[in-house]
Amino acid sequence: IKKIAVLTSGGDSPGMNAAIRSVVRTCAYMKVECVGIYRGYQGMIEGDFKPMDARSVNNIINKGGTILKSARCTEFRTPEGRKKAHEHLLSAGIDAFVVIGGDGSFTGAMIFNQEYNFPIMGIPGTIDNDIFGTSFTLGFDTALNTVVDCIDKIRDTASSHNRLFFVEVMGRDVGHIALNAGVGAGAEEILIPEENLGLDRLLESLKRSKESGKSSSIVIVAEGDKTGKNVFELKEYVEKHLPIYDVRVSVLGHMQRGGAPSCYDRVLASRMGVKAVESLLEGKTNLMVGVQDNQITLTPINKAIKGHTKIDKELIRVSEIMTT
Ligand code: F6P
User: Known catalytic residue: 128?
Assistant: First the structure.
């Protein structure tokens, strides 16, 4: 392997730049050429490539987003799209690529590998932390800090006005952001898709909370929660059935994806980038780099995309005790 490409794909996450930097610098260290691919698989299909050396990634370790830009590319899901991508990679003399992204991006890489026997390596970059084979995806820790910071601010105003707030957080189909940020910010209730305890229980708990002397409350709602109601409908429901609260809603949205990566995400990205390049140079392929028990690990990419990381039952129990 003489030339390795790197791309970021799917929803961006803080730490992607630090991972790009690590891949590029490891290539430079190993005396292998490196090429950046812009806009994920869309740029691969269009041949939007740029040679990168150690100096191309100066001053980006601290930056959110991705300097290579990202896209959710539907054309790469078609054999025609992948054929164009393959032709561009061959004509640029690229021997392997590292894709930084989530399960959709890994699925694309895996199919591409099967079709063209092209060496690929995945680095998990998503705020959702929904990838099997790693305890942390890049951006999860930063997103948690962002969410906790926002909820701390919401708590100030909630408490000044004796209000109940429903705060919607991201996470797609999983509740990792909601559960961890909820515990970290001291939320009174956390609604996650993995555990739907029903609306009656929510009302009971809010009633108990008020009776126990709490004047304000924060309920974190994962965007994928299974109550069957969105945050605005939850507000109406509580106002109707429990008129003791003045209720407001806050949807945190895409601010959760931005901002400078935390130190944890920067260090993790640096470790993962080194492992990704070294593994390709050792002839390994079709794997995802992860971190488990603070050791950098490799997981077959088909396993990484099939299973989700399991919700932490112990943390659910902790959150229940903390809301007493
Ligand atoms: O996967 C990351 C994520 O931010 C999810 O939490 C969210 O559901 C989704 O992406 C939003 O996607 P988009 O930026 O395309 O609206």
Answer: yes
Nearest-5° Cα angle at 298, 293 to 299: 100
Contacts of 283 (CB under 8 A, 6+ apart): none
3-state helix, strand, coil in the chain (%, to 5): 45, 20, 35
Please tell me if the CB atom of residue 105 comes closer than 6 angstroms to any atom of ligand 1: no
The verdict on pTM exceeding 0.95 is yes
pLDDT digits (tens, 9 = 90+) for 106-154: 999 999 999 999 999 999 999 999 999 999 999 999 999 999 999 999 9
The residue among 198, 173, 181 whose CA lies nearest residue 309 is 173
Q: DSSP letters along 205-240, please?
A: HHHHHHHTT---EEEEEETT-SSS--HHHHHHHHHH
The complex's ipTM works out to 0.98
Residue of 12, 103, 128, 141 marked active site: 128
